[in-house]
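Give me the 3D structure for DUF2530 domain-containing protein.
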Amino acid sequence: MAKWTAKHEAPEPLEGPVVGTIVGGTIIWFVLFLAQSAFYGWFADRDLTWWYWTPLAGAGLGLIGIWYVRGRDAALKRFAAERAAQAGRTD
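Predicted structure for DUF2530 domain-containing protein (91 residues):
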């Protein structure tokens, strides 16, 4: 198991505008889907329609990601508010 032991400590997670990042990525996937719409016949002729539908799947997963991240942010804010309220009561 020695080869699985960490040689370095893990870095701190990056914090930033997570919701904005997910929204931006979702928009890019959807724009790619719309841009490929003009070439659907080309994809269909070559039996490559999965290339056409992949950006739509990415946009759909992005919508799920937006829902998840917004809920996560709200839960973290509630948790921080509860801890602050408990700290205020114990002092």
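The chain has one domain: 18-90. Let me know if you want a second pass.
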